[in-house]
């Protein structure tokens, strides 16, 4: 168990169901700020199953980020601050698209600071072209058979299409 936090190491937590161009944008720009980033896929056993199982999400993220040095992917269950402490991460990376996102993330950052005072939260605004992209929109476009190429990287679009064909 690491004794100290590393402010060059950030966790980028989320459900990533599915991983979108918005997520990829935040990750690419965050690599300019941090040496290492772990994309941390949340496992929420209390939630209904998503489009992809957590390990499938990790594999898709790996396929979308294989060209990026310093990026790893894993799943976690439980308190994010405990995972950050166990990994020695000094930063939580959060992407923001709109004001509504900030309201929620602002409260979570304070709660996390109460639980782990050495853990910082860094917010990055998404690029303008991705401000409307969300996993919910992607799931809706997928449900109705729309073109996903503008919303998700190719490996994710292919996996979504394979899911549609299995249904």
Order of helices and strands: EHEHEHEHEHH
Mean pLDDT: 93
CATH homologous superfamily title: HUPs
Helix content percent band: 40-55%
Q: Between the first and last Cα atoms, what is the distance in angstroms?
A: 43 Å
CATH C-level class: Alpha Beta
CATH architect. name: 3-Layer(aba) Sandwich
Describe it.
There is one protein chain. The protein has 167 residues and is an alpha/beta fold. The protein has a single domain, classed as HUPs (Rossmann fold), CATH 3.40.50.620. Strand 2, helix 2 and strand 3 form a beta-alpha-beta unit. The radius of gyration is 16 Å and the shape is globular.
Strand and helix map with partners:
Blueprint: E1 6-14, H1 21-30, E2 36-42, H2 54-65, E3 71-76, H3 80-87, E4 89-96, H4 99-115, E5 120-125, H5 135-143, H6 154-166
Parallel strand pairs: 1-2, 1-4, 2-3, 4-5
Quick summary of this structure?
By secondary structure, the chain is α/β, with parallel strands linked by helices.
Key descriptive features of the protein:
167 residues; alpha/beta; Rossmann fold; 6 helices; 5 strands; globular
């Amino acid at each position: 168990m690491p004794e100290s936090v590393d402010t060059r190491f950030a966790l980028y937590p989320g459900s990533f169901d599915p991983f979108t161009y918005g997520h990829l944008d935040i990750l690419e720009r965050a690599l300019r700020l941090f040496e290492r980033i772990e994309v941390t896929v949340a496992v929420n056993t209390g939630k209904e199953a998503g489009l992809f199982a957590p390990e499938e999400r990790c594999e898709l993220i790996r396929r979308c980020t294989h060209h990026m040095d310093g990026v790893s992917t894993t799943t976690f269950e439980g308190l994010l601050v405990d995972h950050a402490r166990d990994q020695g991460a000094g930063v939580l990376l959060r992407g923001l698209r709109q004001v509504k996102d900030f309201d929620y993330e602002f409260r979570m950052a304070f709660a996390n600071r109460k639980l782990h005072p050495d853990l910082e939260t860094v917010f990055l605004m998404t690029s303008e072209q991705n401000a409307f992209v969300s996993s919910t929109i992607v799931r809706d476009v997928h449900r109705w058979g729309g073109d996903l190429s503008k919303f998700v990287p190719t490996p994710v679009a292919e996996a979504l299409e394979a899911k549609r064909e299995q249904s």
